[in-house]
Amino acid sequence: MKIGLYPGCSMKGGSREYKESVEALAKVFDIELVEIPDWNCCGATAAHNLNRELSLSLPARIMALAEQEGITDILVPCAACYNRLTVTQHELAKDPSLCTKVASIIDLKYKGTTQILNILQFIDKFIADKLEAKVVKPFNYNAACYYGCLLVRPHAILNFDRVEDPQSMDNLVKKAGGTAVDWAFKTECCGAGMSVSRTDTVARLSGKIMKDAVDRTAEVVVVACPMCHSNLDMRRPEINKYLNEKIDIPVLYISQVLGLAVGIDAKTLGLNRHMTEVNLPEKPVKPAAVAEKPQKVVNTQKTEA
Amino acid sequence: MSSSHENHHPLSLSGEIQMDTGVPINKCYQCGKCSAGCALASEMDYPPSLAMRMLQTNEPLQYDKLLKSMTIWLCVSCEMCLTRCPMEIDIPTLMDYLRQKSLRAKKTNPQAKKIIAFHKSFLDSINYTGRLYEMGLIVDYKMRTGAMAQDVAVAPKMFVKGKLNPIPELIKGRKKVAAIFNRVHINKEGKQ
Question: Given A15, A46, A198, which is nearest B122 (Cβ)?
């Protein structure tokens, strides 16, 4: 099976382990990922903050290139890129004159027919059914699944999962043999692109996320976005300084968690590339690991009933 | 800004913004859920619900305060305000609009210099290579802000972990990407 892949810039640099683990996981399930030829950056936050037309044109060029290749489904593992591509498709579909204008800016034909999939949708569509049968090393840990902002918002456009208490990543962790802890910061903002320009802000926002995760007994935080990962992982020294305590639990991509469970080795999944060392203790596999266990409730605050 | 005294069909300030963005500013009834959920509200000069009220006044003075505010640059577009707004008012789109107006009117808050520099360095990289070249972005950002010492300690570890590419990836169609920048009127110094 061939699926288009838009890796985006982070996955070629700072979060290459995300790309490595997504590709390794796809291979186990006989899915061939075909990179969109000569793709460009989606423009990210910078483009939509500074210039609306640019913020629509850059993603439109990517989708137009995929259309040229006859690609129907595009996997976009980076949550930020996924958001920009999906929002662009929506904006251009509802405004034909804007669509014509953008097509002339990018100087390419654009139909807007490609299906954009985030990593969780991709796994749900092509992998989830076959996952449990392939689990050889259950991921027997308490995991705080962190979705962040851009996978779930704006809900009216993305129409993905529950907006305040999403479940798709939790369900995958459970299928991999882990326990998804109930916690309050699933969709709170980590500080996003302010890592460099306002590091203090990122330390505060990401600090609250990490603090709640460990308070709820998480042994690992699981993410689906390179920006979330870099803020929670690379900015850990700043986070610990803000919290005035030492949090050393690792942050893994969902593709790494599933990869470990189906028996892919740590190096292939790029676990050695994280800035916060991944030292998950070996645990005996409990027979009931796959079943849902009652949570140890630390406090009763919930974001949604 | 519309000249409401001479025009036969005067458009208020908020009406004009609604025309440009499609966002119905007058639907806000000040419940405050946006500010309550906003991750950055505590650092803002005007939290989102107050910004909405300022736009509703239709006072040029209040509009000007927003163009000069830190609020518009601190907003990270996490979209929580829109998610929780009972009237589904798209505040993030208004923030994008106000940022672009502020830039064009040259009214950006001096304290937002680093945030804007980062965005401009980011776009510069795309304009030159077609993609984001992370190392180039950081060097360009340091040149713009003078923050030479920032994150120097973390760079060697990132390099060892294979997270920093010393050489940018140049796409074949970078002239085509540069042409996109030209058509939306951004030059290679990130100016519009």
Answer: A46
* Residue of B106 and B4 predicted with greater confidence: B106
- Of the residues B50, B82, B108, which one is the last residue of a structural domain? B108
Instruction: Determine how many CB atoms are found less than 10 A away from the CB of residue A55.
Output: 24
Mean pLDDT score of chain B: 91
State the CATH class of domain A136-273: alpha beta
**CA A2 – CA A32 distance, rounded (Å):** 5
Question: Is residue B104 domain-shared with residue B43, that is, in the same domain?
Answer: yes
Nearest Cα of chain A lies from the Cα of B58 at a distance, in angstroms, of: 24
Residue B20's domain comprises 13-108
Residue B8 lies in a domain: no
User: Which conformational region is residue B77 in: left (phi greater than 0), alpha (psi within -120 to 50 degrees), or beta?
Assistant: left
Q: How many CB atoms lie within 10 A of CB A83?
A: 29
Q: What tens digit of pLDDT does each residue of B27-73 get?
A: 999 999 999 999 999 999 999 999 999 999 999 999 999 999 999 99
Q: Is B6 inside any structural domain?
A: no
Residue A155 Cα distances to B72, B79, B84, B162, angstroms = 22, 9, 11, 35
| B47 assigned to some structural domain | yes
Would residue B130 count as lying in a domain? yes
pLDDT at A233: 97
Q: Specify whether B94 is located in the same domain as B156.
A: no
For chain A, the structural domain boundaries read: 2-119, 136-273
> Please, what CATH class does the domain formed by A2-119 belong to?
mainly alpha
Optimal mutation site among A6, A18, A54, A205, interface B, most CBs of chain B within 10 A? A54
State whether B82 and A272 contact (CB < 8 Å).
no
Tell me whether A159 touches chain B (CB under 8 Å).
no
- Whether A192 sits inside 8 A of B164 (CB atoms) is no
Measuring CA to CA, which residue among A283, A143, A140, A280 is closest to residue A221? A143
Inform me whether the C-beta atom of residue A52 falls under 8 Å from chain B C-beta atoms: yes
Q: How far is A251 from A264, CA to CA, in rounded Å?
A: 18
Q: Is B191 exposed, middle or buried (0-12, 13-18, 19+ CB in 10 A)?
A: exposed
CA nearest to B159 within chain A: A14
Q: Left if phi > 0, otherwise alpha if psi is -120 to 50, otherwise beta: which for B116?
A: alpha
Tell me which residues of chain A have a pLDDT lower than 70. 285-305
Give residue-wise pLDDT tens across range B111-122: 999 999 999 999
pLDDT at B4: 46
Final residue in a domain of this structure, among B108, B124, B140: B108
Give me the interface pTM, i.e. the ipTM.
0.91
**Chain B contacts of A14, Cβ < 8 Å?**
134, 158, 163-164
Tell me how many domains chain B contains.
Answer: 2
Q: Tens digits of per-residue pLDDT, A29-51?
A: 999 999 999 999 999 999 999 99
Whether residue B68 is found in the same domain as residue B19: yes
pLDDT number for residue A104: 97
